[in-house]
Amino acid sequence: MEQYVIKGGNPLVGEVEIGGAKNAALAILAAAIMSDETVTIDNLPDVNDINVLLDAIAGIGAVVERVDAHTVRINGSTVSCFSVDYEYIKKIRASYYLLGALLGKYKHAEVALPGGCDIGSRPIDLHLKGFRAMGAVVDIKHGLISAHADSLEGTHIYMDKVSVGATINIMMAAAMASGKTIIENSAKEPHVVDVANFLNRMGASIRGAGTDVIRIEGVTKLHATEYSIIPDQIEAGTFMFAAAATKGDITVKNVIPKHLEATTAKLAEIGCQIEELDDAVRVVATKRLSHTSITTLPYPGFPTDMQPQMTVVLALSEGTSIVTESIFENRFRYVDELNRMGADIRVESNIAIITGVEKYTSARVSAPDLRAGAALVIAGLAAEGVTVVDDIKYIQRGYERFEEKLQSLGASIEKVTTDKEIQKFVLRVS
After folding, report:
1. Which of 20, 26, 169, 202 could be joined to 43 by an S-S link, Cβ 3.0–4.6 Å?
2. What is the DSSP secondary structure assignment for residue 278, as one 8-state letter?
3. Are 429 and 412 in contact (CB under 8 A)?
4. CA distance 273 to 196
5. Is a pLDDT exceeding 90 seen at residue 1?
6. Nearest Cα to Cα of residue 387 among 335, 331, 429
7. How do 320-324 and 293-295 pair as beta strands?
8. Does position 118 have pLDDT exceeding 80, yes or no?
9. Average pLDDT of 354-381?
10. Nearest to residue 99, comparing CAs of 27, 4, 17?
11. Half-sphere exposure of 80 (CA within 13 A, CB side)
12. DSSP secondary structure string, 114-148?
């Protein structure tokens, strides 16, 4: 089992290049099978979730050619199976995007109920409601979602709750349905816009992505294109919070600053110096930061995927902060681990009450999910002594070369697999 071993106490300083957005890439890769021509996608993050989904796409018969670590060519003309193997689905939740893509193109799809990080209930009822509204027959049996239709018809769909996954899945299916589909109360996240832009580049007719009403005119065919994934706002935010927690000075490059506005606003509010450039954001923290309150909300609100990293920073800040998690009910599972490092956090229902402490101390902790795992690494970088983070398989699902990028900023961190390697690291840094 791989682990990170970290010697804390070094301010992180320098520049870091941000990769492509994992959440956008997963949906775009699924959508690529909807064309019978070759689609080229670049700026892919080379992370486990992407590689698992590419295996799943190859598993249903599509041609998948890895040009390099960040570029892939996909041709969906050879898809011969409409059932996605459970082995892929249990590893990554986003495999469910193949449901919308297969249903849209072939009018038939069978996908196992999704897995992924255990951060709370993420029902897919809104996805199925949308498919049914377009005329699909949807059943759940033996752990499988089966959807089929003689034809998909455009319709008016009101989303009872803002859902990124459902918005994207319905948008993909509607792209090749007959007539016009309107999705109201749709998600506005940057990766929803990126998927819509990609589909439009293949010949779809989608308007309004990024607003709460998306209008789609169905087309009969999608064609070849070349497309580059947007930068990953969550990876960027993680390094920005690392600067804040370690009293560092980090410039995150290859970003879209507008996508980071909720993050930069809160960092500025608690005392960080923020400098925005055309495609970069610099975060400088020279002193102990102050407290604030945040509530996670759909975009453009504060992202739930940044909540654990922000909590790590607030637990080192002066005063009492309040963090309200309005998206996922299990998102505070990392708090017990953080408290073992000296944090003073009390969780009541979906609210974390944080009393700032002067410092963290090292401990052996375990990553409960992807973003919480990255947050615990940040805590280790800010802590006194040597911290070990177990279960880093979660972190590797969404961060490419995480330890290497941190090392380039001056972090003392290594990936290890045995206690003997941990002991060697401790002797070397002592």
Report:
1. 20
2. S
3. yes
4. 34
5. no
6. 429
7. parallel
8. no
9. 97
10. 27
11. 5
12. P----SS----HHHHHHHHHTT-EEEEETTEEEEE
Angle at 263 (CA atoms; ends 259, 264), nearest 5 degrees: 90
Angle at 355 between CA 352 and CA 359, to 5 degrees: 120
pLDDT above 70 as % of the chain? 97
Q: Answer whether 354's CB lies under 8 Å from 337's CB.
A: no
- Is residue 117 flagged as an active site residue? yes
| Collapsed DSSP state (helix, strand, coil) of residue 205 | strand
Task: Please give the Cα distance from 31 to 347 (Å, whole number).
Answer: 39
Q: What is the DSSP letter of 2?
A: -
- The neighbouring-strand residues paired with 345 are 354
**Residue 160 main-chain phi, psi, to 5 deg:** -65, -25
Instruction: Reply yes or no on whether the pLDDT at 162 is more than 70.
Output: yes
Identify the pLDDT of residue 119: 42
CA angle 358, 236, 172 (to 5 degrees): 135
Residue-wise pLDDT for 67-104, tens only, equals 999 999 999 999 999 988 777 777 777 788 999 999 99
Confidence of residue 326 (pLDDT cuts 50, 70, 90): very high
Neighbour order of strands in the sheet with 351-355: 293-295, 320-324, 351-355, 344-348
Is residue 298 reached through a cis peptide bond, with omega within 30 degrees of 0 on the bond before it? no
Instruction: Quickly list H helices, 139-189.
Output: 164-175
Mind giving me the DSSP string for 179-224?
SEEEEES----HHHHHHHHHHHHTT-EEE-BTBSEEEEE--S----
Strand ranges inside 173-225, DSSP E: 180-184, 205-207, 213-217
407: its two tokens: 């090392």
Residue 113 CA to residue 92 CA, distance in Å, equals: 11
Tokens of 295: 């509530």
Confidence of residue 385 (pLDDT cuts 50, 70, 90): very high
Whether omega for the bond prior to residue 300 falls within 30 degrees of 0, making it cis, is yes
Identity of the amino acid at 125: D
User: By the 8 A CB rule, do 378 and 28 touch?
Assistant: no
Q: Which of the pair, 121 or 12, is modelled with greater confidence?
A: 12
pLDDT for res 140: 86
Candidate list 16, 39, 94, 117, residue with the active-site label: 117
Q: Is 155 left (phi over 0), alpha (psi -120 to 50) or beta?
A: beta
Report strand pairing: 83-84 vs 108-112: parallel
